[in-house]
């Protein structure tokens, strides 16, 4: 109780600073109401900490407070970012940044606030005229030779959220040491220091002048244009879930040669309240309800959906019985990389220096494909900034041909340095055209991969723990797993433990090796001889701890798929017990 009173006192003290004239009347009124309210929950949640850059940048619920997304937290982040840019590029005559946003409530307001602050600090801001996909922001930074970028988006989070992604001059999200350098600058900024009054002469509105070159570049990743000519009337159903893919993805599909694209009418409307879905996340079947309705009605070949900032793609296709099934994130990544490798080889585009990337929590079947096809595969941390880092490290020496993660993100090109649903949807349509050209469906392609490389089932468990008490609980769970790890995983003996916090690999006999990673990360992994793999990590963008389970089986015929699924589900239940979940 005493600790709670101390916390309340600290939050009240911090909140009172938000009653100064530096804040607008609406903000001051909201803060005053929190202070006066007998229930201190809102006060604590809004002020117990400052928003921090995680794996996805700045992200939080919108509202008044230091732990909320508002023009002041956005303003302090931008002022600190501006200070850092001026220090880093002090010899540059004109520093420039790209500012982009998605469909969320307040996104345009925050984007204009960002552009105003940069321009007030003498930095040129290229501000998009309306919402655009996240990957186009990354492309624009490189195309315009800007030094940085800011994208206002909370990706697939619930409607209450918004966010702030900071990008560097390579078009990738900010990595060390710049992330920590920006944070240090942000922490030194007081609200009074924010230069809100923009310089219109330093704000340039951009739009079609970036759209066209971006779409032209996306078209260059097409591997086999002939199959598209044969299957140009492939029946495609697409939904942007009210978000930024609504214009660019249908345009890209048309540019690639697909002329039978049906867009889900109700979800083509830009709306930050996401009225037709509970959560605008293509990972969830519920978000695809209207898309599936149209796909069944039209007897479509493929259903594809992009999230609000159009960097991730979800999909569904018909199985061998003609029933619509969802393709999960691991399967998505698997299909993309299998197709890129197989068909680059078939058309003679593959080179010995080509390489692919996946994140450490993504399916190991990709590693099997790369091994068998003699293609270099690299593992990296979760978050596309790490995939972007691998591209940058090999620039001019080796060619990146694709990479992805289990959370439905894929990047098929190197001229963008963040996941890209525009190119992914276009390439997905090509894969479906290729399948149809061979008398198959996307589902058949997935079965072919399992038959050749082994069946795998992946399952993610998200344990949500919101607020300060939740953050403490998540921290404790990670401590407990380190001090008292599971003895086995559903009966499978653990052979290798990887702890990315200590960067140590420990074998069953107790011997240790160092892990070669660019920095430490709060991630634990356990591997078993039968291919069972479990990874656990706190989310960098949401109040949750994530468990990634992967189990293996042998599939001799496509007809055995359901049997493998049943065995895998039993194994997953057993693993959950081992993890005390």
Write structural notes for this entry.
The relative contact order is 0.09. 39% of the residues lie in helices and 21% in strands. With 581 residues, it is of the alpha/beta class. Helix 4 packs parallel to helix 5. Strands 16, 17, 18, 19, 20, 21, 22 and 23 form an eight-stranded antiparallel sheet that branches. A six-stranded mixed sheet has the order 1-5-4-2-3-6, sandwiched between helices. The chain is built from 18 helices and 23 strands. A hairpin with a 2-residue loop joins strand 17 and strand 18.
Q: What about the largest sheet?
A: 8 strands, antiparallel
- Using only C-alpha atoms, the radius of gyration works out to 24 Å
Number of helices, counting only DSSP H or I runs of 4 residues or more:
18
Mean pLDDT: 95
Tell me the structural class: alpha/beta
Runs in which pLDDT lies below 50 for 5 or more consecutive residues are none
Overall geometry: globular
N- to C-terminal distance? 29 Å
What level of helicity do the residues show?
25-40%
Instruction: Please report the total strand number as a whole number.
Output: 23
Classify the beta-strand content into a percent band. Answer: 15-25%
């Amino acid at each position: 109780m005493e600790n709670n009173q101390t916390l309340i006192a600290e939050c009240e003290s911090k909140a009172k600073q938000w009653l100064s004239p530096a804040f607008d009347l609406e903000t001051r009124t909201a803060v005053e109401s929190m202070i006066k309210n007998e229930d201190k929950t809102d006060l604590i949640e809004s002020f117990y900490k400052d928003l921090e850059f995680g794996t996805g940048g700045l992200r939080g619920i919108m509202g008044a407070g230091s732990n909320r997304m508002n023009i002041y937290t956005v303003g302090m982040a931008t002022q600190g970012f501006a200070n850092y840019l001026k220090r880093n590029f002090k010899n540059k005559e004109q520093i420039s940044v790209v500012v982009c946003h998605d469909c969320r409530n307040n996104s345009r307001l925050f984007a204009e606030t960002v552009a105003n602050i940069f321009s007030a600090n003498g930095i040129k801001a290229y501000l998009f005229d309306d919402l655009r996909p996240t990957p186009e922001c990354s492309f624009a930074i490189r195309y315009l030779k800007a030094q940085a970028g800011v994208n206002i988006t909370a990706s697939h989070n619930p409607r209450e959220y918004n966010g702030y992604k900071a990008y560097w001059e390579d078009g990738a999200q900010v990595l060390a040491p710049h992330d920590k350098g920006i944070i240090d600058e942000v922490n030194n900024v007081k609200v009074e220091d924010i230069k809100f009054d923009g310089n219109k002469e330093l704000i340039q509105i951009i739009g079609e002048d970036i759209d066209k070159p971006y779409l032209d570049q996306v078209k260059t990743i097409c591997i086999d244009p002939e199959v598209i000519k044969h299957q140009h009337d492939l029946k495609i159903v697409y939904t942007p879930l009210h978000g930024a893919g609504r214009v660019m993805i249908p345009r890209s599909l048309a540019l690639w040669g697909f002329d039978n694209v049906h867009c889900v009418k109700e979800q083509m409307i830009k709306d930050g309240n996401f009225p037709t879905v509970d959560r605008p996340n293509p990972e969830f079947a519920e978000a695809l309800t209207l898309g599936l309705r149209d796909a069944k009605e039209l007897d479509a070949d493929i259903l594809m959906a992009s999230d609000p900032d159009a960097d991730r793609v979800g999909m569904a296709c018909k199985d061998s019985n003609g029933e619509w099934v969802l393709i999960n994130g691991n399967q998505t990544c698997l299909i993309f990389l299998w197709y890129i490798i197989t068909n680059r080889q078939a058309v003679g585009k593959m080179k010995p220096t080509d390489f692919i990337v996946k994140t450490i929590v993504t399916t190991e079947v990709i590693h099997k494909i790369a091994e068998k096809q003699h293609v270099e595969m690299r593992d990296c941390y979760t978050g596309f900034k790490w995939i972007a880092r691998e591209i940058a490290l090999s620039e001019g020496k080796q060619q990146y041909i694709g990479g992805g993660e289990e959370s439905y993100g894929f990047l098929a090109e190197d001229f963008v340095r963040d996941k890209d649903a525009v190119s992914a949807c276009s390439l997905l349509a090509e894969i479906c055209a290729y399948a149809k050209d061979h008398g198959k469906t996307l589902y058949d392609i997935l079965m072919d991969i399992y038959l050749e490389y082994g069946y795998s089932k992946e399952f993610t468990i998200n344990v949500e723990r919101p607020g300060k008490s939740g953050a403490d609980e998540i921290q404790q769970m990670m401590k407990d797993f380190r001090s008292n790890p599971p003895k086995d995983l559903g009966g499978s003996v653990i052979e290798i433990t990887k702890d990315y916090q200590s960067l140590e690999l420990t074998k069953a006999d107790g011997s240790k090796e160092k892990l070669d990673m660019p920095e430490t990360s709060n991630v634990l992994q356990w591997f078993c001889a039968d291919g069972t793999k479990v990874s656990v990590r706190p989310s960098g963008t949401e109040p949750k701890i994530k468990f990634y389970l992967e189990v293996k089986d042998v599939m001799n015929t496509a007809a055995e798929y359901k049997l493998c699924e049943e065995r895998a589900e039993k194994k997953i239940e057993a693993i959950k017990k081992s993890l005390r979940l």
